[in-house]
Specification:
single chain; 219 residues; alpha/beta; Rossmann fold; 2 domains; 6-stranded parallel β-sheet; two-stranded antiparallel ribbon; 9 helices
């Protein structure tokens, strides 16, 4: 069965504003910009907290410990405001429905904690589209480790030889490459069409075109 696996943050939905708000909430003044730092947001909570602490002048030797101390508060704030500003990218839900109608199995492989991913997908109204959903803590490993992606494909009922990963960052490209799976990157995130530098199988300009792009992969 042909299987399309999707990243979540920055791929299906623009979550950057809510992520950055949760990170900024742990400091006396905002340290991250919702626009300029949106790419960092899509690399996760630790990446945002690392940048924020660096901007406060936290000594390098102390940053990792500061991140671990700040992480529970960040996750709590993020859960409370998880869909305040987050929205699906235009056409994403329609593209999922078109793929399902063409017989594709669908899944989500995200480095977001699984409980938060479940909550967000449910709030966005698309959880029922996916036969499998694995988060950062679903397995002992996570992207870019290929086992995270391969297990998501298997749980969706698919075969790696007929699967594709749709993502937005180098993490997705590396995971797909290691799994022997083609990767399509969205071209409407912070880097725009510049993601082509990462060497994906294709760059997606709009979800309207996703079914046609996947057909051309000839899986």
């Amino acid at each position: 069965m042909r299987t399309a696996i999707f990243d979540l943050d920055g791929t299906l939905a623009d979550t950057s504003a809510d992520l950055i708000a949760a990170a900024n909430g742990g400091f006396s003044a905002p340290l991250l910009d919702p626009v300029a730092d949106s790419l960092v947001a899509f690399h996760g909570g630790r990446a945002m907290l690392r940048l924020a602490h660096a901007r406060t002048g936290t000594p390098e030797a102390e940053i990792e410990a500061a991140i671990e101390a700040a992480l529970p508060g960040f996750l709590s704030r993020y859960e409370a405001g998880i869909d305040t500003h987050t929205r699906l990218y235009d056409g994403a839900a329609r593209a999922l429905d078109r793929l399902a109608g063409q017989g594709w199995a669908l899944g989500v492989c995200t480095n977001k904690p699984v409980a938060l991913a479940e909550l967000l997908l449910t709030r966005l109204g698309i959880r029922d589209r996916f036969a499998a959903m694995l988060g950062a803590d679903s397995l002992p490993v996570r992207k870019p480790d290929p086992r995270h992606l391969l297990e998501t494909i298997a749980r969706a009922g698919g075969d790696a030889g007929r699967a594709v990963l749709v993502g937005d960052t180098e993490t997705d490209v590396l995971a797909a490459r290691a799994a022997g799976v083609p990767c399509v990157l969205v071209g409407f995130g912070p880097e725009g069409a510049g993601v082509a530098r990462l060497g994906p199988a294709a760059v997606l300009a709009s979800y309207t075109h996703l079914p046609e792009i996947l057909e051309r992969l000839d899986l």
